[in-house]
């Protein structure tokens, strides 16, 4: 049976993650070079290094991205909007924001809605896109479903499972739930635990279009080997 994907298809699902707090400048620089070499979808890098990342990626098809309210979502809305504006000033195109997890668990949906909307509106006004991180390991299915509905209401571009720094990452059950309860125009991103080509293909089959990866090289080299490239 012919395979229904190319290595470019897989590469363009990958947000190459450079968020580990102990990564040095040299490691961030090397990570950007790897992203360029493998022509992934984006580099998601620590905010302070975003400007340099955008400079390195200029002229390529790899987008510069960073995080907002990361990793706990406890920032005030004003600070998140300021973070978004700074990221856009620094050349960021895709912003991954964390919901206020405590407010979600408190059921304060008006706050959660206005918080997400503020970042989405500020980012869209300048041509960027927003991926909203739920941190599903702390939430019940009812929370996840309501967040999908809110993200659709306020025009978010992606819903995303996790930061990769909580107590759990992406699960197939959560990804299916998020895809089911999001309109087609809202894409789904998996984060935390996608470490092999087979794992990438498994989430692709249920409609996931992006995933965060630290093992980009291993996944794409496995893809090349499997396709005989």
Tell me what you see in this structure:
With 229 residues, the chain is an alpha/beta fold. It contains ten helices and eight strands. The chain has a single domain (7-227), classed as TIM Barrel, CATH 3.20.20.70. 46% of the residues lie in helices and 16% in strands. β3 (63-68), α4 and β4 (94-98) form a beta-alpha-beta unit. α4 runs parallel beside α6. The longest helix has 16 residues, at 109-124. The protein is globular, with a radius of gyration of 17 Å. The two termini are 18 Å apart. The mean pLDDT is 97.
Helix/strand layout:
Blueprint: H1 7-11, E1 14-18, H2 25-38, E2 42-45, H3 50-57, E3 63-68, H4 77-89, E4 94-98, H5 101-106, H6 109-124, E5 129-133, H7 141-154, E6 158-160, H8 172-180, E7 187-190, H9 197-205, E8 210-213, H10 216-227
Key terms:
single chain; 229 residues; alpha/beta; TIM Barrel; 46% helix
Quick summary:
With 229 residues, the chain is α/β, with parallel strands linked by helices. The chain has a single domain (7-227), classed as TIM Barrel (Alpha-Beta Barrel), CATH 3.20.20.
Strand line-up of the largest beta sheet: 1-2-3-4-5-6-7-8
How many extended strands? 8
CATH architecture: Alpha-Beta Barrel
Low-confidence stretches: none
Helix coverage percent of residues? 40-55%
Q: Strand fraction band?
A: 15-25%
What would you call the structural class? alpha/beta
The named CATH superfamily: Aldolase class I
Instruction: Report the major sheet.
Output: 8 strands, parallel, barrel
Q: Summarize model confidence as the mean pLDDT.
A: 97
CATH hierarchy class name:
Alpha Beta
Q: Could you tell me how far the N terminus lies from the C terminus, measured between alpha carbons in angstroms?
A: 18 Å
Molecular shape: globular
Tally of alpha and pi helices: 10
Written as H for each helix and E for each strand, in order along the chain, the element string is HEHEHEHEHHEHEHEHEH
Using only C-alpha atoms, the radius of gyration works out to 17 Å
In the CATH scheme, what's the topology name? TIM Barrel
Number of domains: 1
């Amino acid at each position: 049976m012919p395979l229904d994907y190319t290595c470019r298809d897989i590469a363009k699902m990958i947000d190459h993650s450079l968020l580990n707090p102990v990564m040095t400048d040299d490691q961030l620089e090397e990570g950007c070079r790897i992203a360029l070499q493998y022509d992934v979808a984006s580099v998601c890098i620590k905010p302070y290094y975003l400007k340099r990342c955008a400079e390195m990626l200029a002229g390529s098809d790899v987008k510069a991205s960073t995080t907002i309210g990361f990793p706990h979502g406890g920032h005030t809305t004003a600070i998140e909007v300021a973070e978004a504006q700074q990221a856009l000033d620094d050349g960021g195109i895709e912003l991954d924001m964390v919901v206020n997890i405590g407010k979600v668990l408190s059921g304060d949906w008006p706050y959660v809605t206005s918080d997400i909307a503020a970042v989405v509106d500020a980012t869209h006004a300048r041509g960027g896109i927003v991926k909203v991180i739920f941190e599903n390991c702390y939430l019940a299915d009812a929370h996840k479903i309501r967040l999908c509905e809110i993200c659709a209401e306020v025009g978010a571009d992606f819903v995303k499972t996790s930061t990769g720094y909580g107590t759990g990452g992406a699960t197939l059950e959560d990804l299916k739930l998020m895809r089911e309860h999001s309109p087609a125009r809202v894409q789904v991103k998996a984060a935390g635990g996608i470490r092999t080509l087979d794992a990438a293909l498994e989430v692709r089959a249920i409609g996931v279009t992006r995933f965060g990866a630290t093992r980009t090289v291993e996944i794409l080299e496995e893809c090349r080997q499997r396709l005989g490239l």
